[in-house]
Each structure stands twice: as C-alpha cells, then as structure tokens.
Amino acid sequence: MKKAxxxxxxxxxxxxxxxxxxxxxxxxxxxxxxxxxxxxxxxGGFRFIYEKGFFDVTISSFKRLFRPPVEIDDENEQENDEExxxxxxxxxxxxxxxxxxTLIFSYVR
Length: 109
Known about the structure:
single chain; elongated
C-alpha cells in the first residue's frame, strides 16, 4: 500500500508540474493525471492478475504440450514464488486511486 501511495503522489506531482505551465491549469492537471493513471491501471491490472497465478494452469499445459520427449520424466519444474518480483498490485491500486480522485476533482469544479 505504501508503494501505491508513493506512486500516486509522484503522478500528481508530475501532473501538477505540467499543469503549472498551462493557462487552464486545473483542467490540465485533471487530464494529465487521468492520462497517466490509465496505463497504470491497465499494465498493473494485467501484471496483478499474472502474479496471482491466473494463467499458471494455461502456462503449465503449454509447457507439457510443447516440451521434447526427453524431458517427459522431469516433472519437478516448480518455480519459486518468492523470487518473483511483485509490482503489479501497487501500480494497479495507484492507478485506481488516481482515477477515482480525478473523477471527483472533475465534478468539484
């Protein structure tokens, strides 16, 4: 959660910096924040789903289907989940936070 908050503040800082050089700074701030948040939601969401193991069954089936006959006896190909670097959830939740805040900001003004 800490990474999501830090990422959200970083996005708002970038959007505010860009918006200060615009004549209509409030609308530019909201638009830039929203534009930056959408790739965070999409990429972070896909990565979050992948990290939670949604595609593990499909990936293991394709590995069994396309492996050479020599490796048939070698079925102990377990990956260590601790070695995976998990960065999808902070990006996804940061994008959601920013998207919701930009929607609220757009109705405030």
